Amino acid sequence: MAGVDERVYAGVSTLQRMGRDALYTEWMKVLKHPPPKGARNITLVRGLSYHAQEKAYGRLKPSTLKRLEKIASGHAGEGSGDLDLRLPGQPQSGSQLIREWNGKTHTVSVVEDGFLWNGVVYTSLSSVAQAITGAKWSGPRFFGLTQGGA
Known about the structure:
It is a single chain. This protein is an alpha+beta fold. Among the domains are: 6-57; 96-142, no CATH class. 44% of the residues lie in helices and 14% in strands. It is built from 6 helices and 4 strands. It has a 4-stranded antiparallel β-sheet with strand order 1-2-3-4, covered by helices on one side. Helix 1 (6-17) packs antiparallel against helix 3 (41-57) and helix 2 packs parallel to helix 3 (41-57). The longest helix is centred in the N-terminal third of the chain and has 17 residues, at 41-57. The radius of gyration is 21 Å and the shape is elongated.
């Protein structure tokens, strides 16, 4: 897997095959405290996997942690009562993105569950950009939403 430390990948795979007692023992060894009471095996695997990834790649940025805490507490959409789960800079539903490519103008509508282009809803802008160009692109970059242009 490109960009993934093979040792981390192998470690996570091993965790997924462990029984409850082995997971509990591993949790105590690695995290130095008991897991949450009543935690299911999948929770132990996820916690241990996250810890292994954090050791290999580093912790989340403080701004990311703060955003996750807001989402978890229900205060991400300050004042609206709704959680705003969009990434910063991500276009809002109802927006239209226009890009000319090879002499043709392409219009993409941002909809609640993705991006609508040519009657098809795509889950990411990158998949729209790939459908338009036939090549892998960063969708936000292709549509001019990030620095660096297209």
